[in-house]
Amino acid sequence: MRVDIQSLGTFNQLAHEGATQATESLSQLTGIDAVVDITKITLMSRADVGEELGDDEFVGVQFDFDGALQGQTVLVFESGSVGTLIEALVPGGADGEMARSGVAEIGNIMMSGFIDGWADYLEATIDHSPPQYIERTGADVLPEPPANEEDEQIFVFKSSIEWVGESVSFYIYMLPEYDPLAGLMSELGDPGQDAIPVDKLEVFNDMTTQGTEKAAQNVEMMTGIETTAEVTQISFAAIEDVPKQIGTETYVGTVVEFTGTPSGYLMVLFDEVSARNVADALMPTDAEGTELTEAHKSAIEELGNIMTSGFVDGWANVLQTSVEHTPPELVHDMGRAIVDPLAAQVGQHQEHAFIIESTMKTDEIEFQSEIHALPNEAELRAALEALDVDRADETEADAEQLFK
Amino acid sequence: MPEVLIADDSEFMRNLLREILEEDHTIVGEVENGVEAVEVYKEQAPDLVMMDIVMPIRDGIEATDDIKSSNPDANVIMCTSVGQEEKMKEAVRAGADGYITKPFQKPSVIEAIEDVVPS
After folding, report:
1. Per-residue pLDDT at A22 exceeds 70
2. Closest CB from B54, B84, B96 relative to A397
3. Residue A323 is nearest to which of B84, B98, B100, comparing CB atoms?
4. Cβ-Cβ contacts under 8 Å, A285 against chain B
5. Closest CA to A385 of A204, A190, A154
6. Confidence (pTM)
7. Average pLDDT over residues B68-93
8. Cα–Cα separations (whole angstroms), residue A316 to A184, A307, A322, A386, B56
9. Contact between chains at A301 and B92 (C-beta distance less than 8 A)
10. Domains of chain B from N-terminus onward
11. What mean pLDDT is predicted for residues A260-271?
12. Which residues of chain B lie closer than 8 angstroms to A284, CB-CB?
């Protein structure tokens, strides 16, 4: 099954317009000034959907939808914002059942706006069930994956909405059933030159998972800190939304440009505490103070270099090609400032971008790392074309064999 | 003791290699790119070069090719984070005698050196 980039762009735009419509409904109902921060399509394992919600408490609504598309949608508000929402909706406030009913109705109106745009574009009907009120923690707000389908990869449409002037976010998730969605994207698109084989994109995502596991092993071998690979996903977003993939907090890490099939940019990023912790673990002696020393920076550069190789080598070995990368450049800045110039470079040739993202962490110390790859779209397509799925697990090369 | 030249753009990695090797080897130089590696090799003619691949100015494969062209008996072990088969084949074609993938432990480095420059 093949999907052209234009179709992916159109579907992403539909989700963005749906989120904008939902946000306008919210503003009309409550007077709250909110804007859509980012919308993206992500291919990921069902079990990983919602990981980014962390351990925060949410309230919201869930719907099933059926018709031209089938699946589920979820709209959630951070629970701390609910009082303000209800106060805006029912001046004087409401408790208990009335408050829940108010949230459900806000959700109902917002999500109807979200879904209607899809139905109009598809010139078909999409029905949705009555809203089910939910009050849950983190990823539990999302529907349970069907039994034995936790590892199945699905396309997820995610929008985050920011409440202007408040550090409060709302999230919309749309989880369409894979086959009808892929079928629609394939039908509506032009299977010509810029079409990508979706099934191979899944295989590529699996290869990336193996690359993340290799990078995590490398961290563990260098630092002695037990490290586990977490989420791996491929997202598709408008170029202007790419910098928003990364948080506004300050990161330390490395950036490399890689060339070959595919080519692009790769960032290995740590939050400042993690950077200091991992650099300390690499040093033979304890350093004084809390600032990163030159020795720490050199250690982080080398760690970034080794993690980068662990991540991209699997692609090269499966594709039987080589992916070169530049020496790592140390970066220490706000996340979006790091990715901005890279998105601008990639954006010279394309309007949308695939973003390959992985995270890894450890329970031993405060440590979390993110890897973000920003491949050139045309070369990623060439890589997918060249991908022999039967070789997908041949990510490792044996130097001893070659140097016998 | 065998003389070793370390070529790696990472100060951290040069320090690590020096700590592993200095007990049983004489470190004749530490350089940060392929151009310096070739220059120092020609000046010092060490018994072994531990050569990174991804380095600025000139990479380790080109530098190995140069060193091996000037002295086919030179001993060069690639010591790199790159674990790609095609890159390993390039290293073989350039004349490299061994290949260690980072991150490494001391025994694997000593073993690789022993294979190339037996004590």
Report:
1. yes
2. B84
3. B84
4. none
5. A204
6. 0.87
7. 95
8. 32, 15, 5, 11, 21
9. no
10. 3-116 (3.40.50.2300)
11. 93
12. 19
